[in-house]
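Review form for a predicted model. The reviewer records the input and the model, then writes brief findings.
Reviewer: anonymous (R2)
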Amino acid sequence: MTITTRTRARAAAALAVALACAATNAPPYRLLKTVTLGADGGWDYLVVDPEARRLYIARDTRVQVLDADTLKPVGDIAGVDGAHGVALAPELGRGFATAGRADRVVIFDLKTLKVLKNVKTGRKPDAVVYEPATRRVLAFDGDGREATVIDAVGGGVVATLPLGGKPEFAVADGRGTVYVNSEDTSELLALDVKTPKVRSRFPLKPCLEPTGLALDAAHDLLFSVCGNQTMAVVDAASGKIIATPPIGARPDAAAFDAAGRALSSNGGGTLTVVARGADGRWSSVQTVATRRGARTMALDPKTGRLFLVTADFGPAPAPTPAQPRPRPRMIPGTFVLLVYGS
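Model under review:
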C-alpha cells in the first residue's frame, strides 16, 4: 500500500466516524481510565446497577463489587463457584449470580451482599436475566441446553424450559419476553416467561455462533454479535435480519447506548461501534483499540460509560487430548478495568 493510499484510507475511516457521530449526535468512544484491580481468578459478565451506583464483576469463585463512580472496592459476594452471570432485581432488593461449577444460582442481598439462598439449576448455568413483568429469573444452563425459571420473590424453581441449543447472552424486554442467543444452532429465541415456553425461533445465518445480545427497546431491535465477526441487527417482532455489519474478532458481549449505537466488545482487542446512518443503513462506524481479552463489558446508562475488563497473559500450556486448544494463563495481579466514554 502506498503512502497516498494509506492516507486516503485513514481519511475515509475518519470521515465514516464523523458522519456516524453527526447522525447520532454523539462523539466517538475513547479510553478514559485504566484501573488495576489485581487479585487472581478469571472473569465473565459485568453488570451495572445505575441507581445504587455499583458495578458487579463475576470473578471465578465470587462476585467482585465496585463503586461505579469511584471504582473503589465495595465488597465481594462469596461462595459463587464458577461465577458467570449476575442479574439484579432492585425493587426486590436482591441479586442473582450463576455458579457454573456448582449448578446453582446464588441469591444475595443488594445492600449487604450477603448470600440469602442457593437454588439448584441444570448443568453449568451461565447467563442469567431478571424479567420484571413476571418477577422471574431465568438462568441459562449451558451444558443442559435449557433455562431454569426461578420465582425471584420466593426463590423456588418454577420450571425447566428446554431450548434445543446452547444458550448464551440474554435480554428482557420488560414486558414478559426474554430473548436469548443459541450459539450452536445460530438462532435467536423469544421466550414467553409467564407460560413459560419458546414462542419463536429466528435463524441468524449468515451470523454464526452468536454470543452477545443487546436490545433497543424503543424500536424493538435486537443486536446479536457472532463468532464469524458479524453483528445481526434483527427486528424483534418478525425475526427479520435488517443488517449484518462487520465487527471485530472474538466478539462476546453487546450493548446499546443512549445515542442509538450498538456496541460489540471483542476479545481480539477492539470495541466495534455500529450505528444507523442518515440513509437508514446500519454500518460499523468506529473501531476502538482496547486490549486483548477484553471481551465482556457493561454499559452504565446513567453516565454513558463502558466498563471492560482483561488481564495480561502468559504462553498457553501444551495441548493435551482433553484440552487440544488450551487458553493462555492469566498472569497473577494483572487484572484491570478499562473505562471508555464518548
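Findings: The two ends are 32 Å apart (CA to CA).
Further findings: The first strand starts at residue 30 and ends at 36.
Recommendation: see findings above.
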